[in-house]
């Protein structure tokens, strides 16, 4: 699975926060790199933030979240201005949803709280649903985060699980296996605090057994959770195909975004070989350290 050094995403969060967050006159400023209208959720006002605590090999925005990149990209916005920009887009486009994307929004958590407070003061807030897209690690690490989010009934937290097991989590992110459980703790804390929660699972990197175990773990939190699970399939954009190939991580199912078709088996092999420019063994069994999922 490569020779990259295993890292601690909680400590990385602290390092990243110093580069993307600062306090001035009681306001928590956060780095963004754009505000835009997107098609997600049937139309959503989106703020793309800078900085993450994971380095997922299938992440579309990994290039903007590396250590050198976060220092040179983006601009600081205070919670009031961020709320105004997001609400303005939502109003102009008649969107119901507002979301933050591109990085990990729980880094600089107080910015989120101040942002939500500003949105709640808006005349539009009762027509808006705020979707907090997160990997859940910091919510699982700091239980009080779930309690703070419960104060805002218009919030939905979408926890994106990275793999279905600690081993898959490590292969996908490069982070220590022991941090996988913080994602599950986040879901537990959110449910305990009655926060509207969606659990997103990218099944491309899960095998049958790990997926089955994960679903059983989730069901232990409550049978209703089954209706809150969303299954996703990785899209093999060229940069992602190259990254997965070089890391020897091979999804069992994927989407070719160029043709918008579902791929399996040899079709995935072919795209990943293109990504590695022919450096992938044709016979999967010849790739030592390769993770076949």
Automatic annotation (TrEMBL):
Pathway: Cofactor biosynthesis; Fe-Mo cofactor biosynthesis. One of its GO terms (molecular function) is 4 iron, 4 sulfur cluster binding. PROSITE patterns: RADICAL_SAM (PS51918). Belongs to the radical SAM superfamily. NifB family. This is Radical SAM protein. Keywords: 4Fe-4S, Iron, Iron-sulfur, Lyase, Metal-binding, Nitrogen fixation, S-adenosyl-L-methionine. Residues 36-279 form the Radical SAM core domain. Its cofactor is [4Fe-4S] cluster.
């Amino acid at each position: 699975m490569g020779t990259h050094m295993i890292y601690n995403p909680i400590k990385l969060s602290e390092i990243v926060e110093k580069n993307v967050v600062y306090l001035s006159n009681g306001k928590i400023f956060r780095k963004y790199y754009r505000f835009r209208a997107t098609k997600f959720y049937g139309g959503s006002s989106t703020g793309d933030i800078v900085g993450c605590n994971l380095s997922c090999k299938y992440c579309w925005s990994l290039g903007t979240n590396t250590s050198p990149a976060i220092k040179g990209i983006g601009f600081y916005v205070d919670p009031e201005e961020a709320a105004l920009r997001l609400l303005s887009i939502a109003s102009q486009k008649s969107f119901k949803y507002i979301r933050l994307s591109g990085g990990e929004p729980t880094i600089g958590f107080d910015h989120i709280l101040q942002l939500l407070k500003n949105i709640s003061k808006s005349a539009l807030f009762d027509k808006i649903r705020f979707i907090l897209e997160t990997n859940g690690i910091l919510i699982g690490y700091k239980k009080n985060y779930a309690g703070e989010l419960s104060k805002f009934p218009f919030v939905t937290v979408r926890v994106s699980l990275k793999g279905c097991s600690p081993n898959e989590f490590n292969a996908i992110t490069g982070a220590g296996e022991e941090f996988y459980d913080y994602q599950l703790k986040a879901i537990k804390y959110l449910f305990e605090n009655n926060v509207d929660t969606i659990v997103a699972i990218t099944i491309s990197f899960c095998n049958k057994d790990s997926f089955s175990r994960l679903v059983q773990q989730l069901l232990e939190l409550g049978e209703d959770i089954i209706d809150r699970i969303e299954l996703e399939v990785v899209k093999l954009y060229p940069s992602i195909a190259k990254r997965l190939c070089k890391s020897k991580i091979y999804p069992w199912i994927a989407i070719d975004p160029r043709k918008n078709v579902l791929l399996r088996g040899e079709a995935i092999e072919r795209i990943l070989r293109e990504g590695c420019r022919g450096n992938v063994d044709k016979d999967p069994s010849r790739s030592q350290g390769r993770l076949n999922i």
